[in-house]
Input
Amino acid sequence: MEPHATMVAGVIIRKNPENAVGVAPDAKLYSSALQLTTAKKGYTEEQFTEVLQIIAAKNGDDIVAINASTGLPFGKLDGSSTMTKGTDYVAAKHDTLVVRSGPNDIENVLPGDAYNVLTVAEADIMLGLDKEPIGAETAYWSAVGRTKYPVSEGPEATRRVLTHLIAPSPFSLPNVSNTGAPADDKKTSGDSFAAPLATGTVALLQEYARKPASNIAGNDYKQEEVMKAVLINSADKVRDLLPDSAGKGMSRTVRMKDLKSTWLDSPAADIPKNNEYNTTDPANQARQVLPLDLQMGAGFLNASRALEQLKGKQFAPGNDTTGRIGWDYNSITLAAGAAPTEKRYKLPTLKGGGYLSATLTWDRNVTLTTDVNNNGKYDDGDTLTAQQLANLDLYIVPRGRLWQTRSGLPTAPSTTWNTSSCNCPRTTKTTTWSSSSGA
Output
């Protein structure tokens, strides 16, 4: 037993109604230890990858999420480290959502540059403004191998936003002494304890989906890309925005660090200039839409809205209309030099002045290219190779228009997600396109 690990686990599975109950108290939790080494004053990247594999293979290779409230403070942030490639490899191979805590400033940077993860940072909670959350102290990871950028630095075209979601902290959590003996609860905070809120939410969603009463057909809901998209797409941004099927909108407004600005003031807010989406308009040509905000990512974790998103059920592309809420797990053809291919999802009429939220996620493909002992698993001494990153774009298009009049213009390179909460200038029927470009 180790104090930090015990407190992280308590966020998810604690069963103590007198104090606090974890997010998913009925979840089954597996854990594994990392051996600290003197040489690097921590564990190695190879050890981390092997431990991820051990946990991902538990429960008959049916682990829906792994919480990684840990990291290492060294390495280039270009996606090439063994720890980063190992994280992406395990997530895709075992179809497990790896939930990664934010960097705690500069303490734990790796595998913050991983692609097949969900990164969650701690949000401050303002007691004076109706308990509104405040964006995290976040930063960019470089897509071209530079080290950590402060928020205000670095060329826009070469940055990837670190944080997908923010979640609350601090907590009073179960504690143990260094000898493993029970100890009094400890009040603590940090990214380490925000991340397991998202991990526990995945467990809750899976618990619901596996019940016959959920009427969710098939097993696509288990896909880690689906869980990632559901959590990102359902996050809170501005109170009462985007009502769900019951007419209930978002429950919180997230403020920036200036305590005034909201998501509507963010470059991630996809709001058209001159009340029209038209790429021939100079104002729209100049606008810059980032998939995620610098301080809040996609917003504040909301488990209730995530459940509503999942309950919208899976629908196929190409239908005449779909429900107001839904999701799909599908594939798209990628071929170098070929014309773009796409999937189109026809949506019902959207009211002018309202918002549409759509999220597209996919994985970076990492392969085991050298398997010294031929056991089909990564071991220290083996080689992992990251394949060229696929480029998928998300477009929101009025019916009957060409995709040149699209919203959600993707401007952030080297990502495996594309999310747009789009303002609809006027009442119209709309089509969402998922398009491939590049290999």
